[in-house]
Amino acid sequence: MPQVRELGGGFTKVYPFWNQIEPEKGHFEWDAVDSFLNQLHSPEEGLISLFSTSTWAVEKPGTMLPPSPAKHSDDYYRFVRAVVAHSKGRVRYWLTDSAPNSRLGR
After folding, report:
1. What is the pLDDT of residue 80?
2. In this structure, what DSSP letter does residue 56 have?
3. Using an 8 Å Cβ cutoff, are 55 and 90 in contact?
4. Could you say which DSSP state residue 63 is in?
5. Buried (b) or exposed (e) across 3-42, using 16+ Cβ within 10 A?
6. Tens-level pLDDT at each residue, the chain (106 residues)
7. Apex CA 56: angle with CA 81 and CA 48, to 5°?
8. Which of 79, 54, 81, 73 is nearest to 65 (CA)?
9. How far is CA 28 from the centre of its chain?
10. Integer Cα distance of 98 and 106 in angstroms
11. Which of 18, 70, 89, 92 is the most exposed place for a label (fewest CB within 10 A)?
12. C-alpha R_g of the chain
């Protein structure tokens, strides 16, 4: 965000992967999300685009792209709710898998 701010910008986004935030079911690592959140200063805004890429929770496991549908939609729902709750209202804009109409990973 400091570089964006230097250019006069006040908005940016990040693309964390499910596996990066929840490497094992129920075990959350918030470093990447917190690093992003800690760089935002009001009135700056950010967007978090979550990618459903995981080594344990999706139909086609992986560590990067492409994303894949969750094996169990309840796990994905729980994951998304946890990230939104952790962000404590500091992020207003959310996106999942960047291209919802894409056939990637299906």
Report:
1. 94
2. S
3. no
4. S
5. eeeeeeeeebebbbbbbbbbeeeeeeeeeebeebbeebee
6. 778 778 887 778 889 999 999 999 999 999 999 999 998 887 778 889 999 999 999 999 998 888 889 999 999 999 999 999 999 888 888 888 865 545 554 4
7. 35
8. 54
9. 12
10. 15
11. 89
12. 14
CA 62 to chain centre: 15
Tokens of 68: 């894949």
pLDDT at res. 101: 47
How does pLDDT run across 66-88, given as a tens digit for each residue?
Answer: 888 999 999 999 999 999 999 98
Nearest-CA neighbor of 38 among 8, 14, 17? Answer: 14
Rounded distance, CA 105 to CA 60, Å?
7
Residues 105 and 60 sit within 8 Å (Cβ to Cβ): yes
Task: Show the tokens assigned to 85.
Answer: 């709750």
